[in-house]
Amino acid sequence: MLRELVQRWVNHKVLVRWLSRFFHYLDRHFEARRSLPPLNEVGFYAFRDLVYMEVRANASKAVITIVDKEREGEQIDRSLLKNILDIFVKICMGDMKHYENNFEVQMLEDTADYYRSKATIWIESDSFPDYMLKAEDCLRREKEIVSRYLHASTEQKLVEKVQHELLVNRANQLLEKEHSGCRALLRDDKVDDLSRMYRRNHKIPKGLDPVANVFKQHITDEGTTLVQLAEESSCNQKNYKRFWRSGSSPCQKIHRAP
Question: Which parts of the sequence belong to the Cullin N-terminal domain (predicted)?
């Protein structure tokens, strides 16, 4: 269906171009005096009303299905998708409303569903660093999809949708993951993983707020531990000195509240 639509569009553009040439005098003088639209516009509007409006829903669903196949690693006909989406863009002579309303909205909804499902699986099976690597790779691939066949205006919307599903909605779960969350990365000085986390989250509005809270608690805990160790060490030194002077047993370690 998509290939047939592209072929009919190509044929129609050729016919409209020759129609304008055959009736050049009519197009240039008669229509101008009567304030009528040029034949070129009339030809495209005819294709929009008689063909595009009939197949737009099925075409949009078909394109989204093929995009999901590429996300799963299948080989697809990218030039076919680009030609189809060019129809969505050009059918109204530069007006983007058909591309946005008849394709982009559904595309973004499908993207949200796709990555919501992926996030549910990955959050259970992967460590925090592995999950971030996958999220980073997904964002890179979505940008490539835009560059290959989607309109450039879709990129920011698509990236924000992927970030929302993979990172924003899962922020607390990721940061608190046992053995691999933000606390574990700070504790083990995993600089590369922490840098990756920062690079991804700082691009999201308020994305660093939960990270900052974990970092603040980590510093507080580490500082408290160091103070306690210093106090215990000081106490032990004093008690050993008393022990050697008096010959009595050293006191037990004293734990003070921070």
Answer: 1-237
